[in-house]
Design brief:
Elements: H1 9-19, E1 24-28, E2 31-37, H2 41-51, E3 60-62, H3 78-87, E4 92-97, H4 104-107, E5 112-116, H5 121-130, E6 134-138, E7 140-143, E8 146-149, H6 153-160, E9 166-167, E10 179-182, E11 189-192
Parallel strand pairs: 1-9, 3-5, 4-10
Antiparallel strand pairs: 1-2, 2-6, 3-6, 4-5, 7-8, 10-11
């Protein structure tokens, strides 16, 4: 799929797979991720199984636009919202209060959720045409005794192709993760330094 201008039958087919409860490997601005439809609760369960991670591991929501976040979050302060508008789209994950429209199986007893608006056209187009955010988690493949972020869709197809419903080839990704910032309290808390410019916050 064209990473700069995704359109056509490949995009529509991918959105249809998501609507049917599929789990896809998608390119983002920080490597490849697994993604599914927010409304597909069985697909959310499958992502935990595929990643072999405990339910305590948080999943994130990926949005097409910053203005879409408010529908699925709890109250966001004016300062936090201005921060979102200033640096997104970009390689950040922001922790915000979880809204009532987010399935509890995503956050269990946690009252927060990670939100993203990546600077990558393919995942944002998927969310836009789907009409709601994607549920995502970083996609890693076993590499001897270590785990690494996946940047080559060919690797994903070879190792996990039979267990996924689709792999979207958007070219090579970047291995660096997102910068993670908790916006729930003032001052904001920097949880992880990644690609996103900390000075911009």
């Amino acid at each position: 799929m064209d990473p700069w201008s995704p359109h056509g039958p490949e995009l529509l087919e991918s959105v249809e797979l998501l609507r049917k409860g599929g789990v896809l490997a998608i390119p983002t601005d920080s490597g490849y991720a697994m993604a599914c439809d927010l409304d597909a609760w069985k697909a959310i369960d499958r992502m935990y199984e595929l990643k072999q991670s405990p339910r305590s591991h948080p999943l994130s929501l990926l949005f097409a636009e910053v203005d879409d976040i408010g529908r699925f979050s709890g109250p966001i302060s004016s300062l936090a919202y201005r921060t979102l508008k200033r640096v997104l789209p970009g390689p950040y994950t922001f922790i915000v209060a979880a809204g009532s429209e987010i399935p509890k199986r995503m956050h269990k007893k946690r009252r927060t959720i990670g939100v993203r608006v990546p600077d990558a056209a393919i995942p944002r187009a998927l969310a836009r045409f789907l009409g709601r955010p994607l549920v995502t988690t970083s996609l890693r493949l076993p590499n001897l005794d270590e785990e690494r972020f996946v940047v080559d869709p060919v690797d994903i197809e070879e190792v996990m192709g039979e267990r996924l419903d689709g792999v979207i080839d958007g070219g090579f990704g970047l291995e660096d993760p997102t910068t993670v910032v908790d916006l729930c309290e003032h001052p904001f808390e920097l949880l992880r330094v990644g690609q996103g410019d900390v000075d911009a916050l």
